[in-house]
Each structure stands twice: as C-alpha cells, then as structure tokens.
Amino acid sequence: MRVLAAESAPAKVNLALHVTGRRADGYHDLDSLVVFAGIGDELTARTADADRLAVTGPFAGQITRGQTNLVARAVEAFRHRWPGAVATGLDVALAKNLPVSAGIGGGSADAAAALRLMARLASVDIDRQELAGLAATLGADVPVCLLSEACLMQGLGDTIVPLAGFPACHIVLVNPLLPIATPDIFRRLKSRHNPPLPPLPDPIGPIAMLGLWLHETRNDLEQTAIDILPLVADLKEAMAATPGAMFARMSGSGATVFALYASAALAHQAAHDLRAKFPDFWVAAAPVITG
Q1: Distance between CA atoms of 71 and 155, rounded to whole angstroms?
Q2: Annotated active-site residue in 12, 29, 31, 220
Q3: pTM of this prediction?
Q4: Which domains does the chain have, with CATH numbers?
Q5: Spatial separation of the C-alpha atoms in residues 250 and 241, rounded to whole Å
Q6: Helices (H) and strands (E) in the chain, counts
Q7: Which of 124, 145, 184, 240 is deepest in the core (most CB within 10 A)?
Q8: Catalytic pick from 29, 41, 141, 220?
C-alpha cells in the first residue's frame, strides 16, 4: 500500500533546564533551552479501513502500552477536533529509533509527529494555534515537539519562544540503556525553587558564545539522576573529555547525556570513540536542527 505521508519525530534535548518553582497542584515550573537533533523516530501512514498503529525499530520492545497509546490518542484527538478532515482510516507505522525513558522527548515527539502527519493529510487548513492547543492536551512537552526547533520553554511548557539565528552545531547523544523514571527524579528533588535562566546572548551565535552561556546554566535534575544512576556522571566526564567537545550535560530527566561540537567531523569522531569506550550503550551523532 502506498505511503500517504511521513513525519520525523526528532530527539528533544534540554541544553539547560532550571526548576524554578512548584505549583499548588504539584506540577513544576521550568525554564529551559530546548533544541532538536537531526535523528529521531519515524512515522508513516498508509490507507486502511480503520486506524491502526504498529511499532517497529530497535526500541519497539521497550514501548509500553501507555506510550504507544499516546500516538493513537493524538490521531483520535485530531479526528475529534476536525471530524472528517482526514476521511480514510490510517495504518500508522512508528519506527522507534530512540531509546525509551531517556530524557529526549520519547512519546511527546511521537505524538507531535502524529499531529503534524494528520495536519498534512487534512482536506482543510489546520490552524497552527489550534493544533498547538490540542498538542497541550496530550502532554506538557508535545507543543514544543510540534515545533521541533530551538526554543525557550517556560512554565509547564505553555510558554514557548522560538529562537531565530541559533548557531549551526552538532551534537552527540549517549544513553546507557538504563531508564530513569521522571516521576522519581521530581519526587527526590532537594531544591524546587531555583533561579531562572540568565538572559541569552544577543545574537545567540557563534557557537562558542552559546557554549560560554551554557556554562552559566544548569540542569537542576542532573544531580538527582546521578544519585539514582552514578553512571551518568561517568558518562558526562567521558563526553566532556572528547576532542572538540564544547559542553556536556545530561538532557531532561536522563539518562541521555549530550555533548556539543562545532563540526560534523568532530561529532562523528567523538561518537566513534565513545562507541569503542561504551560498546553496550546507544550512541548517535547528528546536526542540531536550526530551523
């Protein structure tokens, strides 16, 4: 059956993540610089008599029912909001290329890709603001994943500011294939009211300037993740020591650690060396999506 549409679900990386408060409902206010890497999961859609979802790829076996349902929920929510806009049933295939529960977007990126896919197939124009509002009902990270470009993200993820002029750079991601549950991280946090991000340089680039700014920032979830999984600290140290690495840090709630490089050659060499050092880990090098 012919493929009707395809969408990528790029890995989301929190270059900086400050926890600035806790609300009465228990949710946390965040202040984060988010970028997306040119590597991710892939969704394709074919005509079917009813909506179906199949998961393939190296990490298909790690998908829980709830994570799978997030893609199905995105399709269902779109149909409910714009009934008849996508007339036929869809056989959606999700190629799960990214490790699960890794702090790099996961189900949120997949749900956002499903919404973009449905919007592309729709027979009517889909308002971007309405689509973003629908994304927010599926999860706090889904709206920023809907954009999949460099952004400042604040609050519960409801304030998103796209960043023009983000410098070209490359990223290496390494995950030890040991999941860390996000609720465990937030439950164990020692400090929930921390200073926000410092003002970004204007302009943001060149990449060396961004690197200097990042050294003034934090991931407020990192130390708690290290307490749970000390290997994160070892991985961060090893990545920071690779030639050309400008900066290394854990992304999100972990356990993926990233390092930034000025060129593809440096990033791919670092990935090669890290695969040799950590043969059982997931290692990927990719450009940062700059819009």
Answers
A1: 24
A2: 12
A3: 0.95
A4: 3-162 (3.30.230.10), 170-287 (3.30.70.890)
A5: 15
A6: 9, 10
A7: 145
A8: 141
